[in-house]
Design goal:
- The structure is a homodimer of 238-residue chains.
- By secondary structure, chain A is α/β, with parallel strands linked by helices.
- Chain A folds into two domains: 5-126, Cobalt-precorrin-4 Transmethylase, domain 1 (3-Layer(aba) Sandwich); 131-230, Methyltransferase, Cobalt-precorrin-4 Transmethylase, Domain 2.
- Chain A is 32% helix and 21% strand.
- The first copy, chain A, contains eight helices and ten strands.
- Chain A has helices at 20-28, 43-47, 49-52, 72-91, 110-117, 131-139, 159-168, 181-190; strands at residues 5-9, 31-36, 60-65, 96-100, 123-126, 150-154, 171-175, 197-201, 209-211, 226-230.
- In chain A, helix 7 links the parallel strand 6 and strand 7 (171-175).
- In chain A, helix 4 (72-91) crosses helix 5 (110-117) and helix 7 (159-168) crosses helix 8 (181-190).
- The first copy, chain A, is elongated and about 60 Å long.
- At the A-B interface, helix 1, helix 5, strand 5, helix 6 and strand 6 of A face helix 1, helix 5, strand 5, helix 6 and strand 6 of B.
């Protein structure tokens, strides 16, 4: 088997929401790689911990210790060094699997490694369950039916961009809602969409919280892993 | 264990893109249910066929034979009858798993059953890999980075809606692109996004086709399972 660099989605948090393919690749990996914080904690690795119980006994690791502050220069240095280490491992014939929370190519960090390695070494991507689909399942509510349109924005977008998405689409998911909670609640009120909105944090984990009425939320900042799902509640699908 | 009605995503086509949780539920099911065409062919069931090899020996089935033409009255009759049969099975203490292509709550039919059964019997939804994430993985190209905005429309939308999405979002996925191919190509040209577009059909199946240059596509209709992924090719993520 040719040595490959594989980005594998491990899903949104529930350890059973990993695909058979991601499991197989993780358990056959010679090297796993993942983002961790400065304390060595990796969300992606902890989601995969049950799967990793059946990993190779001589499994090697390439952790990417990511600084918390948004310092692109420092982050780029971490990606550069990891890319070099991964290329070296592939050159030695080792299979390298990078563990990604959710889906590898949806608002994740895997793209930064992929752009450095694509064209230089064989790459493959295994999709994962993203938080938008996990949210719809937790709410037991269709994201879209028939000809509704659907848009994803993030709390990092401008107020204008968020309000425009809310005005122009029946369904809107607002990702990375933590620090922008106050601004998002204001956008929902400004566009008369507060009654269409539901809020979730830590989906599928022990500390999962769901608010079906977002006006019950206070204005304090929420965690990074939080999102708003806005759907047309008046929808009639028949 | 309480009998439950479970909608389980089986992913976009590759039989390994099923989650561990969907596998477990399918293999413990007393009854499986699924949409099939008038010839008895079910895409969702065929994707799950390897998993079904380990299903219970006395597994029962509730197929929904869906007429091809877009006749809502007839479709509603099929959903009504299936809902009654599913409720009966649950009342008999049987675990019922409805197999859904892709994700159950993203442009699927599962919502039509769920709205009939929700509140009457215990329901659960297991998310699946949707075609948007499968497409990004097949293209090895991030759907979104940093503060890009992302929108999903379908070939069933008006020309105006599709062009507006293409003008207002860096990333646009156009689903159900088969019969609307000609109109979509025109919208891509009108908005100067043809160079940003890639086209995929039957992702992860034997007959998968990918066009990195959509101007190589002719104007004929494509299959139902086809989509366009439009991303900012000039994107710089560093």
């Amino acid at each position: 088997m040719t040595a490959k660099f594989i980005g594998a989605g491990v899903g949104p948090g529930d350890p059973e929401l990993i695909t058979l393919k991601a499991c197989r690749y993780i358990q056959n990996a010679d090297v796993i790689s993942y983002i961790s914080n400065e304390q060595g904690v990796s969300q992606a690795k902890s989601i995969a911990q049950d799967v990793l119980k059946n990993a190779r006994s001589n499994l090697q690791e390439i952790p990417l210790l990511m600084p918390m502050q948004e310092n692109r220069t420092e982050a780029n240095r971490v990606y550069d060094e990891a890319s070099t280490a991964i290329q070296q491992a592939i050159a030695n014939g080792l299979q390298v699997v990078f563990l990604c929370e959710g889906d590898p190519l949806f608002f994740g960090s895997f793209g930064y490694l992929l752009e450095r390695l694509q064209g230089h070494i064989p790459c493959e991507v295994v999709p994962g369950i993203s938080s938008i689909h996990a949210a719809a399942s937790a709410l037991q509510h269709p994201l879209t039916v028939l000809t509704e349109s659907f848009s994803v924005v993030s709390g990092r977008h401008s107020q204008e961009k968020i309000e425009s998405a809310l005005r122009n689409n029946e369904t809107v998911v607002i990702m990375k809602a933590g620090r922008s909670r106050q601004r998002i609640l204001q956008a929902l009120r400004n566009t008369q969409r507060a009654n269409d909105a539901q809020y979730l944090e830590y989906i599928g984990r022990d500390k999962e919280k769901i608010y079906h009425n977002v006006l019950d939320l206070d204005g304090e900042a929420g965690p990074y892993f939080s999102l708003f799902v806005v759907t047309s509640r008046a929808r009639c699908s028949r």
